[in-house]
Amino acid sequence: MKVFVYGTLLKGMEKESVLAAAEFLGAATITAQLFDLGWYPGVSEGDSQVIGELYDIDQTILADVDAIEGFDEHYPAQSLFVRKTLEARSLSDGQSVNDFCYFFN
């Protein structure tokens, strides 16, 4: 499954090692609103372009990323971030990619 990341999971950031075994698909953008939440950023619905990275991840990495993002699939309403399916656009070739991203809840 494909995930778009925009914060502490980016290359060069403090939690990049979580995605070390994932396939890096490249830089991309999504349409959302980026916020500075203090220790980390968050996105919500919006019409700005947010730059980040696309990865292809497996279930093991998904569980690790869910934990970092404070997402519990059994209690999404009580999660810090929730997964949302959306379209990202590759910066290298302009192709649209269906993926998910963690939105601030």
Looking at CATH, which topology would you report? Hypothetical upf0131 protein ytfp
- Second CATH tier, the architecture: Roll
Largest sheet: number of strands, sense, barrel closure: 5 strands, mixed, barrel
- How far is the N terminus from the C terminus? 22 Å
CATH superfamily membership: Gamma-glutamyl cyclotransferase-like
Q: What is the gyration radius calculated from CA atoms?
A: 13 Å
InterPro entries: AIG2-like_dom, GGCT-like, GGCT-like_sf
Pfam families: GGACT (PF06094)
Domain Gamma-glutamylcyclotransferase AIG2-like: 3-104
Protein name: Gamma-glutamylcyclotransferase AIG2-like domain-containing protein
Quick rundown:
The chain is mainly β and 105 residues long. The chain has one helix at residues 59-69; strands spanning 2-5, 23-36, 41-56, 81-90, 96-104.
